[in-house]
Amino acid sequence: MRHRTIPGSSGRPRPLRLYGDPVLTRPCAEVTVFDGELAALVEDMYATMYAANGVGLAANQVGVPLRVFVYDCPDDEDRRHLGHVVNPHLVEADGPVFRGPEGCLSLPGIEAGTPRHDHAVVTGFDLTGAPVTVTGTGFFARCLQHECDHLGGGLYVDRLTGLRRRRALRAVARAPWAAATDDRAAAPA
Length: 189
Fold this sequence. Notes:
single chain; alpha+beta; 5-stranded antiparallel β-sheet; 4 helices; globular; disordered C terminus
């Protein structure tokens, strides 16, 4: 019997920010207040991540430039990792580097082989301000590195080079959502 609520069950999905939105390219600010507003943001982030069928989501992907991310991600052994980190810092990214398929909720429908370390350690805090350390391997390590990149103003396509980068950016330019993003940017305020 479950004695706690399911993350995101009291949240509401928020609109996702898509590639080209300036909030995705700026480093996020540290959280300084651990209150109900932060808890509501985290709940909304879980709801948004689940609605978009993601495994991780950074706050700037819903337009909030704060250092927070949520995750519900399996590792390579199919063990589920569920949680959130406030003010995360990637303190270790080591082990072999693998080029694996990587996508992003801010670039829907686009994937590219992206190099990532096979092991990652992130430190930060939970909603109450208590310290947390999250360790991941395989796909979960990829997720941790991906979300930390977001909070620093980076996207996985920034890690691509050569032909892979050109193909990914061409796919972005052809994506139906990219035209909608360009139309919004060109529209007078």
